[in-house]
């Protein structure tokens, strides 16, 4: 596994390497355990099922990573997904636009929603938590108002539903899209100056400004990106379920944030990785699917995810304190 | 005047809505529906008071909705076992206090970020409740609804309780040292520590207090209907945060007042009945509330910007 390229000391590097390694080990243990209790769990069919059901949350978690890296947060992605799904259905059914063009337009709508967040956060320097809390209400409310609370969009053509329900050489049809976005965002965060600058901004915004980074523009980009990908997730969601309702994606923002934090990204920004996020998504998806196969109630999965999140956080904070303490001890020794 | 400009401007907006209702929909001013509205919103007022303290202390608590549901169901079960209501009240307060104290322990003791801690406890408690109860409603015994009083008396008592808590807290945060500590820790924890305040203790107490208020609010909500809904309190955290923010409490801590949270809640709470009485489609409620939140923060942002450039 690749360690994230941080410009800090080796001790830091090893801690984050450790975080992701531990998460990976937990994931393998989960897999082995569920494989031994649920006879059908390890089958290829079920693996495809896990992948299919985690694509939308996975996409949201992927774009949440740069946002949290810069020290921000976006509570509105789930509501954005809902609004995009509704407008997508509206464009196709009432405006008689072809499905693919409607899909492209949905990406644009998502981008526009993201740009609203971005401009409020960067131009007026408002706290992201509050801005996206407001747009969370606004987007979900607009979706409810558009459908008058009852309207549901169904009856999409079969070739479109194939995007969410069929298989492509043994893999879910939406998997290639997910992989493409994942690789793209991984490259963006870990292999470009853009990614470096997000990390720098999260680590010290003022420092980044003095280093000549246009902080506002770079931060704004992360929210616009989140909007566009939320639009994509809305299209895939609609194709998978075959319907678009105003409550689409309720609570997804929390799953996405949980996956990102579980994956080792600091909620204060500056530290984290995209592959950590992917591991976080996988750990959550395997846990909730595996418990069903182990004939455990679904609610246990939610409880365990909450507990896992707290445990991961405690371990990483304690490790950080430990590292800081041993560093001080080291410095004392050398003087 | 200048110090309370933010609260007064929200109050002015609220009065404007009241005035509009007087002109276009006088039916809004019937006593019984208004009292029912106030009763429905009084648990939210209690939560918003606690949330204002948490946010002034530069923290956030998004687990209150789940705590609320747990306290509601537990107090319903205790009432169904024919415990006297006073004991149920103390049990609900104690349970809320314990849940809040757990958050406080994790945030203040281990110094974990409050948003992630309360996100985790929110999910955990909500799912634990669903697991144990499988979404079952709790039937309250005959004497429990409205505290065993006549409906109007019960409603008046609940509103009075919520308002009393509000006034006491508003006075405490303004005039009592313990209340000022919350502001001190929220504006600069390190400076507060140097001034002899123990920031971690203050933070812990604020979370525990928020939990106790949630317990009280849960009981007030539970006795309003003959059955306790295990899903009650969903989205309550966002409603409370929205009221607090609209009322001018700064999310960066140390600024704002309980009165602000109160007028913020009044403004947000009258959206839904206003839509009904003006014969507008009720589906716009969420969107309008979102717009009000954004308007409030944009106004804050513009003012801060003017001060920056001035």
**Amount of helix of chain B:** over 70%
Hey, roughly how much beta strand do the residues of chain B contain?
A: under 5%
Q: What is the terminal separation of chain A in angstroms?
A: 36 Å
Mean pLDDT of chain A: 87
Tell me the number of strands of chain A.
Answer: 2
Biggest sheet of chain B: strands side by side, in what order? Answer: 1-2
Specify Rg of chain A, calculated over alpha carbons. 21 Å
**End-to-end Cα distance of chain B:** 21 Å
- Uncertain runs of chain A are 1-7
CATH architecture of chain A: Orthogonal Bundle
**Helix-strand category of chain B:** mainly alpha
Produce a short descriptive summary.
The complex is a heterodimer of chains A (335) and B (310). In chain A, helix 6 crosses helix 10.
Structural description of this entry:
The complex is a heterodimer of chains A (335) and B (310). Chain A is mainly alpha-helical and 335 residues long. Chain A has a single domain (10-325), classed as ABC transporter involved in vitamin B12 uptake, BtuC, CATH 1.10.3470. Chain A has 13 helices and 2 strands, in the order ααααααββααααααα. Chain A has helices spanning 10-37, 44-69, 77-93, 99-123, 128-147, 158-165, 175-191, 193-203, 205-210, 215-241, 252-262, 274-293, 298-334, and strands spanning 167-168, 171-172. Chain B has a domain at 42-233. In chain B, 74% of the residues lie in helices and 1% in strands. Chain B has a two-stranded antiparallel ribbon with strand order 1-2. Chain B is an all-alpha fold. Chain B is built from 13 helices and 2 strands. Chains A and B meet through α5, α11 and α13 of A and α5, α10 and α13 of B.
